[in-house]
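Let us practice reading a record.
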Amino acid sequence: MTGNDTRPFERLAGDESRRSFLKKSAIATVGLSAAASGVASAQDGPGDGAIGEGPWKALIFQNNLYPEARFTFVSGVVEWNPSYGGIDDSWFTDYNTRMIRWLNTGEHVQLFVADDAEVGQYDENLGFVVDDEEREQPQVYEVSPEWSLFEDDPKLATINFGPAEEETEDQLLEADGWWADEQDAVVTDRGEGNATSGGNTTTSG
């Protein structure tokens, strides 16, 4: 089975905004029926609120894995889990499905994050999990170099990840301005009277 067979979101090309991606992904998803606030619906737990120190455990399809790469969360908790072969929802009772953006490739893929991971809050207006210190920019996370197969299923890998150093985060975000485009879109919406809440209003995730 290829990555395209298992991935419920269609990968989008071009320079579409993050908000547009989330809306279109809901249409292309098997079993998903909402975007933005729907995608950001969260489960209660220690992952709400401030960002912890890590590292935390997560699962990812092997063909989407980049050891030691950095990423940002670009959704809240998505109410979807893989189901194929011997894999079903029971395998994922301790994990939450989220979408991430790899900063090295710009790809948007699924990450199945352990329930106890304190990854911070998703801002549905900005389209990413915000940094605790700089609330208008995303928090950057990095993957540990070591990884292993997920139990008996070779399609999934077990990884550890945590927040990147602040200096590393700032350098990466300065070089990649996708998140600033989202910020500009929010400001434009406010100016046109279309925004219903401030840019720092967050949806727990």
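A brief commentary: The two ends are 30 Å apart (CA to CA).
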